[in-house]
Design brief:
Layout: E1 2-4, H1 7-19, E2 24-29, H2 35-47, E3 50-55, H3 75-84, E4 89-91, H4 95-98, H5 116-120, H6 124-139, E5 143-147, H7 151-163, E6 169-173, H8 193-198, H9 200-214, H10 220-232, E7 237-246, E8 260-268, E9 271-278
Parallel strand pairs: 1-4, 2-3, 2-5, 3-4, 5-6
Antiparallel strand pairs: 7-8, 8-9
Helix pairs in contact: 6-7, 9-10
Bound molecules: adenosine monophosphate (AMP).
Length: 283
C-alpha cells in the first residue's frame, strides 16, 4: 500500500493508472477510521481494480466555532486498517496542498442544501462539494462510495455529480452501527462513558418512530412527538433538528410514507451527533 501526501504526485499516479485502463474505486474520508469506513472500503475493493482511500480533515467544511482543531486524527492506525481492507493507495494531502494561496473557487449548490444540516451548519456543504470535486479531479475515480450516515451529503453529491456530468458512479452504503444501535462515528470518541449511554437516545428515537409508523401512524406531528419523547428523556441531550422529509427532495411532507426520511441532529454535551432512517427501509 502506498501513502501519498503530495497533490501533484497523486494526480500523476492516478493519470498513469487510468492510462493503463485500471478501474478506480474511491472512498473519501476524514480519517480516524472505524467499521463504517471499513464497510465502504470493502465494497470499494469489490468494485475497482485499484482502491483509493483519502484522509483529509477538510477545513472548508468546518464552521468557525466547530471542532476542526480537536477532530481526532490517527494516520498510522488508519493506514493499518486501510491495508487490512485492501486499499492500494492512501491519499492524505495537507491543507496547504489542497488550498494554496489564491484559492478562490466554490461550487454553487441548490435547495438540497437548505434544510437539516445545511440550516444548522452554514457553508458546510459548500466546503464538502468543493473538496469532493477536487478529490474527483485528483483521483479520477470510476466509482466513489459514501455512507448513508451522512444522508444529505450523499444526496447533494449525487445531484452535483449528475448536474455537472462528473464521470463517477456514486454508491451509497448502509449505516454501520454499534451492537447497541449507536451509529459509528469518529466523533463518538469525544463521548465520556456516561455520554456514550446517553447517545443511545438517537437510536431509540428512530426506533420509536419506525414502530409507530409500522402500526399505521402517518401523522408527522405524532411521529415526531414519539421521537422527541425519547430524546427529552435524556436531560443532557439537546435537539438541533428532528424532521421528517421526502427522502429524495428533502422537502417537507404532509404525511409519512415508506419513502419518508427521519433525520436528526442531537448534541450530547458539546458533541454533535447525527442519525437517520428511511421509514420503508431497513434500519
Ligand atoms: P467521515 O470520515 O466522517 O467524513 O466519513 C467518510 C465516509 O464514511 C462518509 O461517506 C460517511 O457517510 C461514511 N460513514 C461514516 N460513518 C459511517 C457509518 N457509521 N456507516 C456508514 N458509513 C459511514
Amino acid at each position: 500500500m502506498k501513502l501519498i501526501h503530495d497533490v501533484a504526485a497523486m494526480q500523476q499516479t492516478m493519470l498513469q493508472l487510468k492510462r493503463e485502463g485500471r478501474r478506480i474505486a474511491f472512498v473519501p474520508t476524514m480519517g480516524f477510521l472505524h467499521e463504517g469506513h471499513a464497510s465502504l472500503m470493502r465494497e470499494g475493493r469489490q468494485r475497482g481494480d485499484i482502491l483509493v482511500l483519502s484522509i483529509f480533515v477538510n477545513p472548508a467544511q468546518f464552521g468557525p466555532h466547530e471542532d476542526l482543531e480537536r477532530y481526532p486524527r490517527n494516520l498510522e492506525g488508519d493506514c493499518a486498517l486501510a491495508e487490512g481492507c485492501g486499499v492500494d493507495i492512501v491519499f492524505a494531502p495537507r491543507a496547504a496542498g489542497m488550498y494554496p494561496p489564491g484559492f478562490q473557487t466554490s461550487v454553487a449548490l441548490g435547495p438540497l442544501t437548505e434544510p437539516l444540516c445545511g440550516a444548522s451548519r452554514p457553508g458546510h456543504f459548500n466546503g464538502v462539494a468543493v473538496v469532493v470535486t477536487k478529490l474527483f479531479g485528483i483521483v479520477q475515480p470510476d466509482v466513489a462510495l459514501f455512507g448513508r450516515k451522512d444522508y444529505q451529503q450523499l444526496a447533494i453529491i449525487r445531484q452535483m455529480t449528475c448536474d455537472l456530468n462528473l464521470p463517477v458512479e456514486i454508491v451509497g452504503m448502509p449505516i454501520v452501527r454499534e451492537p447497541d444501535g449507536l451509529a459509528r462515528s469518529s466523533r463518538n470518541s469525544y463521548l465520556t462513558a456516561e455520554q456514550r449511554q446517553q447517545a443511545l437516545c438517537l437510536y431509540r428515537a428512530l426506533q420509536a418512530v419506525r414502530e409507530l409508523f409500522a402500526q399505521g401512524e402517518d401523522t408527522i406531528e405524532r411521529l415526531l412527538a414519539a421521537a422527541r419523547t425519547q430524546i427529552e428523556a435524556v436531560p443532557a441531550a439537546a435537539i438541533e433538528y428532528l424532521e421528517l422529509r421526502d427522502n429524495t427532495t428533502l422537502q417537507p411532507v404532509d404525511r409519512a410514507t415508506n419513502k419518508t426520511l427521519l433525520a436528526l441532529a442531537v448534541k450530547i454535551g458539546t458533541t454533535r451527533l447525527i442519525d437517520n432512517t428511511v421509514l420503508g427501509e431497513a434500519l
